[in-house]
Amino acid sequence: MDTATKSVELAKIAAEIAVCRNCKLCEKRSKTVPGIGSPSAEILFIGEGPGKSEDLQGEPFVGAAGKFLNEMLASIGLSRADIFIANVVKCRPPENRDPEPIEVETCWPFLARQIAIIQPKLIATLGRHSMNRFLPGLKISAAHGQPKRRKDGQVFLPLYHPAAALYSPSQRIVHLADFAKIPAILKKLESQSTNF
Question: Average model confidence (pLDDT) for the chain?
């Protein structure tokens, strides 16, 4: 699928999300947050759900955690134009609570379709909720920064949520060190290496 076709297909999904009323998260949202970025991105970053700033702007990671994400991307020579960012749920859970299992399940087809269209080489999960959706049973404290290949061949990189560094400045070093591994992981994937 070429980039133009991917753009059209992703726009269709965003339009469906905009009118979705399949779970109670739609009741209090300001805007839906379908995701944004390059339709042909090699890396897809997936967070948990929109926060207050994201709900108001309709884009993922635009608050303080988003600023730190931008900083981490810049540290490895990337910008938002190079990647795609989405969330497990597309509407803000009230008071930033964790999404409920039924909300995650209801929203899952949208994200599954986005992944199928983008076909990223690497999916970087931001936070334990996103990681557990794809790699259940892992502890983020042990798995962060370690690429994992699932049986279906997709490679994941569990990362701490950028917001964790906002409350614990010492975490910034860990975040940046994990991000620093991304270029080498992509190189391995380009060489068709299966050693993860």
Answer: 95
